[in-house]
């Protein structure tokens, strides 16, 4: 039976006591208790101090810190400390250093300066993991093992000779013989035909465009190489302390694209992720909601752990925007509403030195006497108040399909438009649904779709036969599917599905596209229903579909832009352009209504409503109070809406409610 490592909805953080003198540690424990901290992640970047020279381990300070945490009632997520090799290791073995596509060595001086395929790095790292497991695997404070840290964040792909040899081994296992590789890669083009796997290299810098399937396979290999490394650490831990669950912190976000977490998830005892709001995005909190729903999809619907987030600003964006009053609570509860059973932060104390010294923390440079720490204490109280939510499922009858392999393929070069990026449409349609009060799961294209009423298929450029067949079966059984432009174009080898776009979905949609007609930046088109669009147009016909809207202008006036086809008991919709926000919302509303998708009554634009089990989360980031009709107890206010309130809860500006609804 699944059991989450921390009770309730725990608040936690990375704790780096090695950055501070021991006299600070006891103050830390007292402040952690004041804030209501449930767990800390310990030891992430401690290798250089734990093993100051090869084979000599110094655990004395670690022992003391663990004792203090346990005495203070704070659980530990114990990191294996392998995220960054110590200088003695990179000095003695520079061959472990990663190399970029241009052949440049990435030197020590930051973090994660190691090649995922290096057997030398693995030997030293696994020795450390075994020492850590033997010493702390039975410690009563240790509730979870944390493999490395953000695997692949800075070294997700390495082009060195060691990686090249590992890539060739991976290809030999995938294809069996070099003739199969030649077929998959289309090597008759540009005289790339191989007669031996020994001739194959990673897609290093080349005079012109690289072979696209070579690039796609290298992305697959790189994700698998790090997954194999994760498994190696995990297996050591399970062999020594099998009763302690194991995780590693994923980076499920729009700016981290190098790991296929659907492949990684089965190797986690609990899925955990890190998420930081990115102020460079037009709608950072909508991206957070999408990421949370994707994390839930990766976790197979089970509760997940937010390992890291930020109490305020980060340090790595061009402008590091600080959170305004109320945003820490709202951002944290957004994670909980969408499936998180723990909310963690980087880090406990803001560092006084180093590259992340301007990254926010639970205890800022200003110390305990600060507005930020008071907000942290209030958040700890709020998470304790909603602790009964833990374990409750998020139920959705709408799904958005998402696939890392499709992303890797879609975002390659030499495509019809470099302006088209895979995550754009997925976020756009998810955002439109959320604005309607519709909660959506974000799931793999080959998932079981039978429990949904509506499935959105955004720019699924690469599509397997199994995914196409699954979508057809879903529609014919009574579901509604909405497919966007640049979907179903290639098979898993990145080979065009001939006969007209959108290849894999052409028959289901009843649409045949002869040619793409992408738009220049700033160019727009109009549809005859009044909608506006940009980015994309197509030369299309609808031999077996109802045309709902046509292009009025642009490169293909008169051609279908929006269609619908009845199929079996359901319907398949096709959108051949990127509708603007208003038109996207209007179409999402139309399709959701026709599909009879479950929706909540959003009281005002910008307000978020999510139901998790019997709990209704109301997040109000606006500057005005809102009233939401519901019957039950607001866990945050500890008050039952009564007759005077008319069975509704009023949520103040920049605040939230979590209502246990009456059954």
Description:
By secondary structure, this protein is α/β, with parallel strands linked by helices. It folds into three domains: 10-156 and 217-389, Alpha-Beta Barrel (TIM Barrel), CATH 3.20.20; 398-594, Rossmann fold, CATH 3.40.50; 608-661, Golgi alpha-mannosidase II (Immunoglobulin-like), CATH 2.60.40.1180. It is 30% helix and 18% strand. The strands form six sheets. Strands 5-4-3-2-1-9-8-7-6 form a nine-stranded parallel sheet. A seven-stranded mixed sheet has the order 11-10-12-13-20-19-18, sandwiched between helices. Helix 11 (327-337) links the parallel strand 8 and strand 9. The protein is globular and about 75 Å long.
Question: What attributes does this structure have?
Answer:
single chain; TIM Barrel; Rossmann fold; nine-stranded parallel sheet; seven-stranded mixed sheet
The first-to-last residue Cα distance is 26 Å
Strand content: 15-25%
User: Percent helix among the residues?
Assistant: 25-40%
Query: How many independent structural domains?
Result: 3
Write the layout of secondary structure elements.
Elements: E1 10-15, H1 22-35, E2 39-42, H2 47-50, H3 60-71, E3 75-79, H4 87-92, H5 119-136, E4 142-146, H6 161-175, H7 178-185, H8 212-240, E5 246-247, E6 249-250, H9 261-264, E7 272-274, H10 284-298, E8 304-308, H11 327-337, E9 340-345, H12 371-385, E10 398-401, H13 404-410, H14 422-435, E11 440-443, E12 454-457, H15 465-476, E13 480-484, H16 506-509, E14 512-516, E15 524-526, E16 532-534, E17 538-541, E18 546-550, E19 560-567, E20 570-575, E21 578-579, H17 581-594, E22 608-612, E23 615-620, E24 626-629, E25 632-634, E26 648-651, E27 655-661
Parallel strand pairs: 1-2, 1-9, 2-3, 3-4, 4-5, 6-7, 7-8, 8-9, 10-11, 10-12, 12-13, 13-20
Antiparallel strand pairs: 14-17, 15-16, 16-21, 18-19, 19-20, 22-23, 23-27, 24-26, 25-27
Helix pairs in contact: 5-8, 6-8, 10-14, 11-12, 14-17
């Amino acid at each position: 039976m699944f059991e989450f490592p921390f009770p309730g909805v725990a608040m936690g953080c990375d704790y780096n006591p090695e950055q501070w003198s021991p006299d600070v540690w006891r103050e830390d424990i007292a402040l952690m208790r004041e804030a209501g901290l449930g767990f800390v992640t310990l030891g992430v970047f401690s290798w250089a101090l734990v093993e100051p020279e090869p084979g000599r381990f110094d655990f004395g300070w670690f022992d003391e810190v663990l004792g203090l945490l346990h005495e203070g009632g704070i659980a530990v997520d114990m990191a294996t400390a392998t995220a960054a090799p110590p200088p003695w290791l990179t000095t003695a073995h520079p061959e472990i250093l990663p190399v970029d596509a241009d052949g440049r060595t990435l030197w020590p001086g930051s973090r994660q300066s190691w090649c995922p395929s290096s057997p030398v790095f693995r030997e030293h790292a696994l020795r450390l993991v075994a020492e850590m497991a033997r010493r702390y695997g039975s410690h009563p404070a240790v509730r979870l093992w944390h493999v490395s840290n953000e695997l692949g964040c800075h070294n997700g792909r390495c082009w060195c000779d060691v990686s090249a040899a590992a890539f060739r081994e991976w290809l030999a296992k995938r294809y069996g013989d070099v003739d199969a590789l030649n077929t998959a890669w289309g090597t008759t083009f540009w005289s790339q035909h191989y007669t031996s796997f020994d001739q194959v290299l990673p897609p290093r810098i080349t005079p012109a465009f690289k072979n696209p399937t070579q690039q796609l396979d290298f992305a697959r290999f790189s994700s698998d190489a790090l997954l194999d490394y994760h498994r190696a650490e995990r297996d050591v831990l399970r062999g020594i302390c099998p009763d302690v669950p194991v995780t590693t912190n994923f980076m499920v976000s729009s700016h981290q694209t190098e790991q296929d977490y659907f492949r990684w998830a089965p190797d986690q005892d609990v899925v955990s992720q890190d998420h930081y709001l990115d102020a460079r995005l037009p709608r950072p909190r909508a991206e957070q909601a999408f990421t949370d729903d994707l994390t839930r999809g990766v976790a197979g619907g089970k509760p997940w752990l937010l390992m890291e987030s930020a109490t305020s600003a980060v340090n790595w964006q061009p402008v590091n925007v600080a959170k305004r009053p109320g945003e820490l609570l709202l951002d944290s509860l957004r994670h909980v509403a969408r499936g998180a059973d723990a909310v963690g932060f980087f880090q406990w104390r803001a560092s006084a030195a180093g590259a992340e010294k301007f990254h926010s923390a639970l205890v800022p440079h200003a110390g305990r006497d600060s507005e930020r720490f008071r907000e942290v204490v209030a958040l700890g109280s709020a998470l304790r108040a909603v602790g009964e939510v833990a374990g409750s499922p998020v139920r959705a009858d709408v799904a958005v399909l998402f696939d890392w392999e499709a992303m890797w393929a879609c975002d390659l070069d030499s495509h019809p438009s470099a302006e088209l990026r895979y995550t754009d449409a997925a976020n756009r349609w998810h955002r439109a649904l959320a604005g309607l009060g519709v909660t959506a799961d974000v799931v793999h294209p080959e998932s079981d779709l039978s429990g949904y009423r509506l499935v959105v298929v955004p720019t699924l450029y690469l599509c397997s036969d199994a995914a196409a067949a699954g979508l057809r079966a879903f529609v014919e059984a009574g579901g509604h599917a909405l497919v966007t432009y640049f979907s179903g174009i290639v098979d898993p080898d990145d080979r065009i599905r001939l006969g007209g776009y959108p290849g894999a979905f052409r028959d289901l949609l009843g649409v045949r596209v002869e040619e793409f007609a992408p738009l220049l930046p700033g160019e727009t088109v109009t549809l005859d229903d009044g909608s506006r669009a940009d980015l994309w147009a197509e030369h299309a016909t609808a031999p077996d579909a109802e045309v709902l809207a046509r292009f009025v202008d642009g490169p293909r006036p008169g051609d279908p832009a929006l269609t619908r086809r009845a199929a079996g008991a359901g319907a398949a919709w096709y959108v051949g352009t990127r509708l603007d926000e208003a038109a996207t919302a209007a179409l999402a509303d139309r399709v959701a209504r026709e599909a009879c998708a479950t929706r909540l009554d959003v009281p005002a634009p910008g307000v978020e409503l999510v139901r998790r089990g019997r709990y209704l989360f109301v997040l109000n980031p606006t500057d005005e109070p809102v009233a939401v009709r519901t019957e039950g107890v607001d866990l945050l206010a500890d008050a039952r809406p009564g007759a005077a309130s008319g069975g509704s809860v009023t949520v103040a500006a920049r605040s939230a409610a979590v209502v246990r609804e009456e059954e």
